[in-house]
């Protein structure tokens, strides 16, 4: 039986998120037949002790596998510290390479995975020319970059991008610009000036796009989609990341999201088993269970992945079907997620199944000849 230690920031700003991950790990451990040894938890939000010292303390206490840290700065610090002797499953992903000499796996809910698969879903649906509406923030730019990279690799054309500031409620000007409605209005005003009279006029949106990609949280998404319809964009398909969905089914609040397609964890979309685990988490967390669904899935997989990781690190021949998606491991010990996609219908997400594998987000993955929900091989 394993000795697992959790390194999580259980106090401070990210305490609630860390608590959700811990709760999922402990619930999974309790239901596991191998869950003999108690799991020890170490609070990494303690600024007095370095992450390297906390790691060493856990190892000295008998840990033979570490789950965490969660925060990127802690992962960087740990990965660049002295030679690590006990494997680490970090619950986030840093941009820089850790190097293969350190036994650090990186596993997180990377929004880039979702953006790339939203692009693949749109191409699979036959979309060719898209415009994007994203937050004006570094995070928005990273999500857009991942989408654009996958979209262009798959042969799509990104025809325009509009960025909206934080706390916007009126998206009209950004939608008009992205649909070229403002250009149409400018032409009318120019013509009226030349003719010296008012003209009967209906703004015409551009004809060279077939879809829209939006990056938004539920509050913004519920405002963007009616405004798209108001501006005569009913014929455009809309794609998004899972950020548009709160994780709690609400047919009344989400009816304005009808038609939007997005990719999310199978656990959040209810397309995975684990019913005993789900019931236990709902008993423990009540209504909060829906708010932290994706973090619960991360915790469940982090615990259940351990035996697979250790065999996969040697052979890397098969994917792992988890609650966060179908997982594959690359040569840099990064875990990549293959998500389920869904479409909002009658205010509720209706699953469309797992996307077939392409080579755009993990060059080692190969397209399977079997159904996309099955496991696949990876090339070494």
Strand residue percentage: 15-25%
H and E order:
EHEHEHEEHEHEHHEHEEHHHHEEEEE
Going across the major beta sheet, what is the strand order?
7-6-8-9-10-14-15
Shape: elongated
The span between the termini is: 30 Å
Q: Mean pLDDT, rounded to whole units?
A: 82
Estimated helix fraction: 25-40%
User: What would you call the structural class?
Assistant: alpha/beta
Number of strands: 15
Low-confidence runs of at least 5 consecutive residues: 359-380
**How many distinct helices?**
12
C-alpha Rg (nearest Å): 23 Å
Largest β-sheet summary: 7 strands, mixed
Describe this structure in words.
- There is one protein chain.
- This protein is α/β, with parallel strands linked by helices and 380 residues long.
- It is built from 12 helices and 15 strands.
- The protein has helices at 15-31, 51-60, 72-79, 111-124, 138-153, 172-178, 181-195, 218-230, 275-285, 288-291, 293-304, 306-315; strands at 4-8, 40-43, 65-67, 88-90, 104-106, 129-135, 157-164, 211-214, 237-241, 261-264, 320-321, 326-329, 335-338, 340-345, 348-354.
- The strands form 3 sheets. Strands 7-6-8-9-10-14-15 form a 7-stranded mixed beta sheet, with helices on both faces. A 5-stranded parallel beta sheet has the order 2-1-3-4-5, with helices on both faces. The chain has a 3-stranded antiparallel beta sheet with strand order 11-12-13.
- Strand 12 (326-329) and strand 13 form a beta hairpin.
- Helix 1 packs across helix 9 and helix 4 packs parallel to helix 5 (138-153).
- The longest helix has 17 residues, at 15-31.
- The two termini are 30 Å apart.
